[in-house]
Amino acid sequence: MKKSLLSLALLMALAISFTSCRDTKKADSVEEAVENATEAASDAIDEAAEATGDAVENAVDAAGDAVDAAGDAVDAAVDAAGETVDKAVDAAGEAVDDAASSASDAIKKEADKIKINN
User: Fold this and answer.
1) Concatenated DSSP letters for 29-75?
2) Number of helices (H) and strands (E), helices first, in the chain?
3) The whole model's pTM is what?
4) Exposure b/e, 89-114, CB count within 10 A at least 16 = b
5) pLDDT tens digits for range 21-73
6) With bands split at pLDDT 50, 70 and 90, how would you rate the model's confidence at 18?
7) DSSP string spanning 64-98?
């Protein structure tokens, strides 16, 4: 019985020593994996921040271009409206002149008729 207990103790000691060596190696590889994952995450964050900065700059540039285009469109609309108003004023002036001329001609004709009848 003593031999079997001693044999069993020897086997357990060997099993524990081999198992503990393996755990140490796994712990080292786990540390390396964590360091690699940390570096990869850091790189990904840096790249994402850079891409976000570029996207923001592009959006600002696009917004500036849109504002410039809108300003140009407003200027063109103001110019077109001014020209239309000028044309309308000219047309109204001509219509008033034509109406005054027609009224003057009609008054002269009526005055001539009255002179002839008297």
Assistant:
1) HHHHHHHHHHHHHHHHHHHHHHHHHHHHHHHHHHHHHHHHHHHHHHH
2) 1, 0
3) 0.43
4) eeeeeeeeeeeeeeeeeeeeeeeeee
5) 555 556 567 778 888 888 888 888 888 888 888 888 999 999 989 998 988 88
6) low
7) HHHHHHHHHHHHHHHHHHHHHHHHHHHHHHHHHHH
SS3 118: coil
* Residue found under tokens 């001539």: 112
CA-based nearest residue to 64, from 79, 72, 49: 72
At 22, list the tokens. 């393996």
Instruction: Quick: pLDDT tens for 67-99.
Output: 989 888 888 888 888 888 888 888 888 888 888
Q: CA-CA distance, 87 to 102, in Å (whole number)?
A: 22
- Which amino acid, residue 64? G
